[in-house]
Amino acid sequence: MTATRSVAETVHLLPQTKQLRALHTIVRDRHADRADLVVTASRIMRRLLDAALELLPYEPHDVQTPVGQTYPGLRVTSQVCGVSIARAGDSMEAELRVMAPSVRLGKILIQRDKVTKLPHLYYSALPADIARRHVLLLDPMLATGGTALAAIEVLLGEGVPQEHIVFVNLLSSPEGIEVVGRRYPNVRIVTSSIEERLNENAFMEPGIGDFGDRFFGTDIAA
Questions:
Q1: What is the reported pTM?
Q2: Which CATH number do you get for residue 118?
Q3: Residue 173 pLDDT > 90, yes or no?
């Protein structure tokens, strides 16, 4: 049985460099041009996916170089797939496809009931062998944690172990991290920012607004 990891081991925050802050300055600006937002957010997503792939298991794999020497390389020991939480997660799916063109991709659609506020699973399409894969679960926002929990439950129901799930997101709230960590302590989280708090409307502060609407151009101008 895998030992339960501490929060320090499960939450992987990208180095908070000046360049990353400059990228966040663009995507958080309410007046940002959509083209600038998409290009800049994609740059952050690349960093996030690189960090997530770093968490996978690797094994030695030597290769011969063009000059006849041996390079002591590495390769991933487990097959990988990406699973996006529609619709905002689709923005990260495209970047993963660029980085790993042959990767298999699944999709989960979860929406909140307008009355009960509880997440409801509407659709899932996952690789048949997902239980044998490491899964990069993709959703730009980790706010209350309700949608994340519902998506993780879908993966667990398909036989994916907790420790094989890496949840990749752009922004995380402290509340969401706590909720996911308390329920599923062996699921790892990779994020580019841990926000200050959730407000009374469950939006993160300082936040980024509705990222899916802004990224795909379906937001309504004020």
A1: 0.92
A2: 3.40.50.2020
A3: yes
Count the domains in the chain. 1
199 inside domain:
yes
- Please report whether residue 1 resides in a domain: no
Active site residue 210: yes
DSSP state letters, 132-155? GSEEEEE-SEESSSHHHHHHHHHH
Residues in the chain: 222
Report the pLDDT averaged over residues 112-127: 81
Tokens of 45: 């997503």
Domain housing 20: 7-216
Mean of the pLDDT values across residues 36-54? 97
Domain assignment present for residue 195? The answer is yes
Active site residue 129: no
Examine residue 2 and state whether it is found in any structural domain, yes or no: no
Pick the catalytic residue from 29, 36, 129, 213: 213
pLDDT, mean over the chain: 93
Active site residue 36: no
Residue/partner pairs of 157-162 with CB below 8 Å, 24 or more apart: 158/126, 158/130, 158/131, 159/130, 159/131, 160/130, 160/131, 160/133, 160/135, 161/2, 161/186, 162/2, 162/186, 162/187
pLDDT at residue 222 tops 50: no
